[in-house]
Predict the 3D structure of the following.
Amino acid sequence: MISRPWYSPHRLVKALIGLLILVSALFPLAWMAMSGFKSKTEVLRSPFQFFPDVWNLQNYRDIFADPAFVRAMTVTFIGAVIFTILSLAVNAMAAYAFARLDFALKGFWWVYCITPMFIPAMAILLTSFVVVSKLGMLDTMAVLIIPGVAASAQMFFLRQFYLNMPVALEEAALIDGANRWQIFVRIFLPQSQGPFVVVGIASFLAYWNAYVWPVLVITNPDLTQIMQYIGNFRSDRGNDWGMLMAGSTLAALPTIALVLIFQRYIVNGVRISGMK
Amino acid sequence: MTTTDLGTTQAAEASVAVSTRGRRARQPRPTAAKHLRATGTAYLMIAPMAVLLGIFVIWPLIYSFYLSTFEISFYQGSKFVGLKFYRFVLTDPDFWHSLRVGLGYSAMVVPSILVLSLLLASFIKTLSRKAGALLKTGVYVPAVVSSVVASVIFLFIYQDEGLANWLVGLLGAGPIAWLNTAGSALPAVAVPGVWMGFGISTLIMLAGMLDIPESYYESAMLDGANWIQRTWYITIPSLKNVLLYLLVTSFVLTLQELQLPLIMTGGGPVEATNLPNLFIFNQFRDNTPFATSYSLTAALLLFFVLGAISLLMFKLISSQKSQDS
């Protein structure tokens, strides 16, 4: 490629197109955040005006003053962290066994563990509800966390990564007398940062963004999840759009922050796993 | 995956499924020699996963099949009724209506996502490393936003005095009750569907494009091929597998969309946005007799179709790969 000076018209057009793409992709989110800063009279007003006339913090103050909102954010965050750690542990262990060990009936267990990837959530949603109610799990943190911990897609992803790790290290450790658990914990886990970030974020998002499952299994207001709070806001509190937009902005913030912090891993994650 | 919202794990699933195409990753290493045999340890390691999947996925699935062939009643014992419920669902016009709505929704969302991400990926490919990374992150952000939040944002935009009506006002049209008009409700729900879906497919397509040798494009440019010709004759044929993968997964995912119509319209107006999963979900919450069995049977029928499509796709992609090499 011939390098062009930065001010060439060609580059300018490209920069403009790029800017246009970014602005239109992010516009709905920006519009939500802005509407949170608008007063009741201003929030639904034609003609369109992006920035508020007066920057009004009242909506954000109101939403933080609602104990139900603060509780939902806290409870969901704690649940999402526990969920993420548990699913990393469960799925990485199985991934290691399938990638690196040979054992009786391996083929059967592989099909058993990977088939759930093809089962749509809806086909088992209703009977899962029956199962958890028979187990007496309704209205507990456990019912939000435990049923989704084992995730075939994530185990598959981690296995692909472990398959590509060099065997030499492992053999050396075996000769030194290390057992499988030591190899997994001391050699494989420290090398797993990249894939752990990718599947960890997927787990966190799955828990944080869940709506239908919490609606089915949680009726206790103390355990209301954040998306339940947002989804039920209009029926609980009426059409207070400014406050709802403020609440939605705060509810979306952790997920967006995660992506921005770990963007390098995510963008590379798709590349590495996909196309080598 | 009961608690897992399909849309949000799409990133991991996408990379997982695409990676089955990988040459290196296709088969377990031939290093599975004797010294790797460790049945006891391996069983301990897969036990948590196997047990959890057994309780929360496999057993519910078996239970679904059981309930779909038995008539459960509180007054008498349950009675085996064979395929009665299946016949009942398949002859129910409401079920077929929801399938048609679902297909209409997919027909709007899937092509939009594919065209949009092809254009975006082609553009991002030409950018410098830094600018490319910025854009990749930017288009990915909408994909991680919860569909509840997306529904709420677009509900707000579709209000009578909202942004959408201001826009059509500029074109001289009167305000539209977007979500309360049978003709506009489904497209109005499809817009956030596209908005949440295009980011991941752009990243996947871009990853595919980076594998196409630059020399193809260089020789085409020497021959004077313009961008459209290069896209049509080089990019699209080279991305055949990626495009097929994206086509099928987005089709399967959009046909299962539940949360957007659940929050935005509840299935109305006049059932215009009653997508299959919403139809099933609402049937389940109904208190009519046999609602559970009916909705389970409908869900299973959908599962057969979708499962068959996904399996077919995985077969197709891996068989093509083996032909290539």
Residues 272-276 of chain A have pLDDT under 50 and may be disordered. The longest helix of chain A spans residues 67-100. The domain at 66-238 of chain A is CATH 1.10.3720.10 (MetI-like fold). Chain A touches chain B through 115 residues (CB under 8 Å).
